[in-house]
Amino acid sequence: MPKRIVIVGGGAGGTITANLLVRNLYRQLVNGEVVINMITNKPDHVYQPGFLYVVFDKIRPNEIVRKQRDLLDPHVNLFVDPAVKIDRENNVVFTKSGKGFPYDYLVVATGSRIVPENIPGLKEGGHWFYDLEGAVKLRDSLRNFQGGRVVIATGVPHKCPVAPLEITFMLHDYFKQKGMLDKVELYYTYPINRLHSLEPVSNWTYPQFEKKGIKYEVLFNMEEVDPVKKVVKSMEGTELNYDLLVTVPPHKGAPVVEESGMGKNGWVSTNRQTLRNEGFNNVYIVGDTTDLPISKAGSTAHFEADVIAERISSEVLEGSAATEYDGKVVCFVETGFDEATYVWFNYQTPPKPTPPSKMLHWMKLGYNRLYWLSARGVL
Ligand SMILES: Cc1cc2nc3c(=O)[nH]c(=O)nc-3n(C[C@H](O)[C@H](O)[C@H](O)COP(=O)(O)OP(=O)(O)OC[C@H]3O[C@@H](n4cnc5c(N)ncnc54)[C@H](O)[C@@H]3O)c2cc1C
């Protein structure tokens, strides 16, 4: 009987894990000693950091979408058939079409999703750039925007912790380029008592906002939007008028995770070092769906995928695994249209943003194109 590895979710974390497993277990796959089955719910793979550039007409929507089959090594079996139940007691995943996929090792890589419907009025009155449709709508609204107050509001939890800052800086340069900065008031809000969840990044942001004339309000937890009066209200009791509302809606994990009893709101209890689901030695969690106290980011998913692929391969080949995750996250942060900064951090080391530079911006643009190699496990 071959060892069966099932991966649920064909996004960044699931795809990199699958391709790295093929590299490590190639001979066993060819000999039929190992089988890798990926279950996902869409035939396409979307490069989500590209949404930011779609908003500003810098990347066309079709440039950030590829066929999932084309990104996977041919030795991985792909099933586009949403998982509807994960049964960890009996080691089997059930899909919408009624199939059951038994496993020896399971990797849960179902990511996170936005839930704008959790904020009354947001769908009708606000914009977001956290899915392709939202990014295109915001792009079109910006093309027709004549000026006024642009409020940026962020729900929690959310993936890519730096994206609210990036969209703010890029909006600044967008209006500057259009020669309408004097007609626009950029108003950034943030849910906690500083400008960013990572304190060093927050400290770095204050002078940047000062320099660019960006106003802000902290302790602003978006509670409700009035689309008719164009007002966004916070749980803290403040109200802001807006002409354009740009938001990061709050997130949840995938419904299948919550419905299978794996974690409230779809966040799964994950060991910080081994990335095993607590209490289940043959179940690994990768990417946004972990409950780890670190950024939900593509780079996080990538570094975790490296660890999980190593661990499963060692367990299959040698019966035990030693590789551990150190909490590493790496982010290039756009500070406008032609400069970026960079942060890296892990469980032990806090981030330290570098001075913005053109070179870091080009590196971010370069990575946007290289992502497809990264997904294939080459980079
Ligand atoms: C605007 C924006 C900007 C970003 N910028 C950056 C950045 O600069 N740097 C960075 O590192 N990260 C960035 N990110 C975050 C990054 O894209 C995510 O953190 C990353 O994709 C998480 O990978 P994942 O595998 O956990 O989830 P995903 O890549 O979202 O993949 C989850 C997969 O699971 C599938 N799935 C869900 N439910 C089921 C089911 N029931 N059955 C089967 N399959 C299912 C989904 O279809 C999807 O394919 C950004 C994200 C956004 C939205």
Give a structural overview.
- The protein has 379 residues and is of the alpha/beta class.
- The chain folds into two domains: 3-111 and 254-328, FAD/NAD(P)-binding domain (3-Layer(bba) Sandwich), CATH 3.50.50; 115-249, 3-Layer(bba) Sandwich (FAD/NAD(P)-binding domain).
- Helix content is 31%, strand content 27%.
- The chain is built from eleven helices and 23 strands.
- It has helices at residues 12-24, 26-30, 51-55, 68-71, 122-125, 132-144, 163-177, 199-212, 255-259, 298-318, 358-375; strands at 3-8, 34-40, 44-46, 65-67, 76-80, 83-87, 92-95, 100-102, 105-108, 112-114, 127-128, 148-154, 184-190, 215-218, 222-226, 231-234, 239-241, 244-248, 251-253, 276-277, 280-285, 329-334, 340-345.
- The strands form seven sheets. Strands 5-2-1-9-21-20 form a six-stranded mixed β-sheet. A five-stranded parallel β-sheet has the order 11-18-12-13-14.
- Strand 6 and strand 7 form a beta hairpin.
- Helix 1 (12-24) packs parallel to helix 10 (298-318).
- It is globular and about 70 Å long.
- The two termini are 33 Å apart.
- 46% of the residues are buried.
- The model has no long low-confidence stretch (mean pLDDT 98).
What is the CATH level 1 assignment of the largest domain? Answer: Alpha Beta
What small molecules accompany the polymer chains? Answer: flavin-adenine dinucleotide
The assigned CATH architecture of the largest domain is 3-Layer(bba) Sandwich
Sheet bearing the most strands, described?
6 strands, mixed
Alpha-carbon Rg, integer: 21 Å
* Uncertain spans: none
Q: What would you call the structural class?
A: alpha/beta
CA-to-CA gap between the ends? 33 Å
CATH superfamily of the largest domain: FAD/NAD(P)-binding domain
Mean pLDDT: 98
Q: Care to count the β-strands? A: 23
- Domains counted in the coordinates: how many? 2
Q: Beta fraction of the residues?
A: 25-35%
What proportion of the residues is helical, as a percent range? 25-40%
Widest β-sheet, arrangement of strands? 5-2-1-9-21-20
Helical element count? 11
